[in-house]
Design brief:
Chain lengths: ~325, ~325
DNA sequence: ATGAAAGCGCTAACAG
DNA sequence: CTGTTAGCGCTTTCAT
């Protein structure tokens, strides 16, 4: 079913059909009607692909994600919400773990799509390595500080500060920090910075023993948590720089017979809604994931309209959601 | 950055570059190396669009959703998980509310994409109206019984039975049913059927007064719930055929001063993870949303491989998740 | 008002 | 082994 079928059926040339399709001038009213009729009758739809190959503009915003999991799904919801307010449509491109592990896959995918399938893109991929010169791009929460590409991130520094202040406010003095893996360049240090700032402000001495790097696998995480919790003078609270580590911490605590929240307070970061379902309910620093997706699309749309390029690096506020994992009785003095 | 730039830079014809790109026979090793080098150097990626326009096969599975919201997001997670196991990539196409409200938009979008952008599609859209003859398609939970297209749905009948049995087991005899809007052709009646079957099996007489249709807007929903709850001999329990209605019911009960679960048990259907966060925690019939997405992709892949077409209509089991909204003390006799 | 023709980036026959 | 050619479905001059 192509434009030629329509043309043949209507007894006109493809050029004429194309004009009708795009509401161009220079077609007799009667012809327009006839062609419209045939289109309706045949249920014809023009091919997005062929059209964009010609046009180099598609009315589509692309979102590139490494995979669709709880985190990116939240961002996608926000992006979809923002797109609703615009004339654009949304295409999510999920590499589905097929990115070879090689960094820079997003750049390659981007160039596969850009100019042809999407007018601009939102990148929800930890490592943004884009060769510029393609379409407008906005990165969401890049771990390796977006460089020259506009980004939307959450306020990691302040979030970590909130979390640590909360624990300090509960009376804790020995607070462990379970960090991100070293490869995560951007948000990890910011969160540790917030942690240390809070300590400093409260006049609590910094103990390097209480800071651990975490890791990627489950075992790495659990080992790190175990190390922290089996310290001679073990921490009475732990701030985990992402919620996977926080949950691992809670589990390790259980196996060690340490009661949460009775004998240990735990706060997580990097909240996806699912972590609210954790038992005991986890106190977390909540990132506005949906909002990040939404703002990213809004920025992209502004870019596409060539409006004032807006602030290139947006930081969205985080907030502390207190749940049972830091409930009294606590702390141990 | 096109194939011609590469060809020019490498001093060969585009045809040769194309051959290198696709690992075709008949290119001298030295030439292959040189072309590969140029490709690397220029960071060239072939255009997915141009390629698929030629090839009519893309290695991409499309998922069409009306919008990305909690429900479809769950399905997407499952689809993404399934795609990981395959050589395909995933493209989600979100109409973003732009579907005119006219039914059949999915068919139109499908034909815009099919044969060119996607090799097959999963439709996550209430009303599946596909003119066949395009690409292979699997529908997820279509409200209007998929007809000839293969579908993945959840076992609405059994789920409703479970919910009602649960309430009966609690001792309830006057159980209201807050149905889906009439337009929802498939799942609505199935859920009502399960409700009535359970009643019959328990020897509880069916009271038409206790069955209401619900509606689309918030007010419709609340009015329906209010009607049910202000009946002279009002129900002691309500089975709501989707979780939005269930939450509305809980809210209306509160405004009427009816304690949930003290004086009223509520069970919902159509669970998205978010409903676990409802206060009080909602007892729901949980649909395996992620699994549905996963199975849909698996079926589609089988279809694309032209394997045995498998069972065309898969029903996945639902399960009852009991939470506080049906906790004792209950029922009122 | 209409259509013939060129070409978007790419691939596949076919010649050379 | 390499290049020329035709054409995927569509839009757009430019003639007619």
């Amino acid at each position: 079913m192509t434009i030629r079928d329509v043309a043949a059926q209507a007894g006109v040339s493809v050029a004429t059909v194309s004009k009708v399709l795009n509401d161009r001038y220079g077609v007799a009213a009667a012809t327009v009607d006839r062609v419209r009729g045939v289109i309706e009758e045949l249920g014809y739809e023009s091919s997005l692909v062929a059209r964009s190959l010609r046009n180099h503009r598609t009315g589509v915003i692309g979102v590139l994600v490494w995979d669709i999991e709880p985190y990116s799904a939240e961002v996608l919801k926000g992006a979809a919400r923002a797109v609703r307010e615009t004339p654009y449509e949304l295409v999510v491109y999920a590499a589905g773990g097929k990115g070879d592990g090689r960094m820079g896959w997003e750049g390659r995918y981007l160039s596969r799509l850009s100019g042809t399938l999407v007018d601009g893109a939102v990148l929800v991929t930890p490592t943004v390595q884009t060769a510029p010169g393609t379409v407008p791009v906005v990165a969401v929460d890049p771990h390796t500080g977006g460089g020259s590409v506009p980004t939307v991130a959450s306020d990691n520094l302040h979030g970590a500060r909130l979390a640590t202040d909360h624990l300090l406010g509960l009376g804790h003095r020995r607070i462990g920090f379970l960090g991100r893996p070293p490869r995560d360049l951007e948000s990890g240090p910011q969160r540790e910075r917030g942690y240390r700032d809070a300590l400093d402000a409260a006049g609590v001495p910094f103990d390097p023993q209480l800071v651990l790097a975490g890791g990627y696998g489950d075992t790495d995480l659990q080992n790190a948590a175990r190390t922290l919790l089996t310290l001679p003078d073990r921490p009475t609270a732990i701030f985990a720089a992402n919620d996977v580590s926080a949950i691992a911490t809670v589990e390790v605590a259980r196996t060690l017979g340490i009661d949460v929240p009775g004998a240990l307070s735990v706060v997580g970061f990097d909240n996806v809604p699912e972590s609210a379902l954790c038992r005991p309910p986890l106190t977390t620093v909540e990132q506005p994931l949906q909002l990040m997706g939404q703002r990213a699309v809004e920025m992209l749309v502004a870019l596409l309209a060539e409006e004032t390029p807006e602030e290139p690096h947006v930081q969205l506020p985080t907030r502390l959601v207190v749940r049972d994992s830091t409930a009294p009785p606590n702390p141990r003095p």
